[in-house]
Design a protein that fits this description.
Number of helices: 3
Radius of gyration: 20 Å
Largest sheet: 7 strands, mixed
Order of helices and strands: HEEHEEEEHE
Structural class: alpha+beta
Strand content: 25-35%
Shape: globular
CATH topology of the largest domain: Alpha-D-Glucose-1,6-Bisphosphate, Chain A, domain 4
Length: 151
């Protein structure tokens, strides 16, 4: 009886492992299918405040995406990095008029989602182009082809 129970537990464990591996593999396939496509979203309220967000999935390691973005931001003369977190792969920065954050999240061994968000101020213009340019710069430095959706 104990041998039979042990056998069923082993089979159930194997089935769960197979299902988890299959789901993970499907997620990676979806990630590869959308890799390099920059999605953007912006909202501006009646009082002029709002946000701009750009995301892209890159075929690169999260550590590499983060370090490339951090190096690029620190080298940019008009940008000041106000905070960075190596563990979370998160960077906060400003150009003096607008604040922004960037985060690189690992989706797999060599698959990363990069998100950059910026606020809008009432006197400023839309930062979408600046945010998308930042994503494109990271893509270029990683030698990964990226395209803006809808263009």
């Amino acid at each position: 009886m104990t041998h039979r129970l042990s056998k069923y537990c082993s089979l159930a464990g194997f089935a769960l492992l197979l299902a988890a591996t299959s789901a993970s593999a499907q997620w990676v396939l979806v990630g590869h299918a959308v890799a390099g496509r920059i999605q953007q979203m912006a909202h501006k309220s009646d009082n002029g405040t709002g946000y701009d967000v750009a995301t892209v999935v890159l075929e690169a390691k999260a550590d590499k995406v983060y370090s490339t973005a951090l190096t690029s931001l620190k080298a940019h003369p008009g940008i000041k990095v106000t905070k960075s977190n190596d563990h979370q792969h998160k960077i906060e920065f400003t150009n003096g008029q607008q604040d922004a954050s960037l985060q690189a999240t690992a989706l797999g061994d060599k698959l990363t989602q990069l998100v950059i968000a910026s606020n809008l101020n009432p006197a400023g213009t839309s930062a979408t182009s600046l945010v998308v340019q930042g994503v494109m710069k990271v893509c270029g430095e990683l030698k990964v082809e990226c395209t803006v959706e809808g263009e």
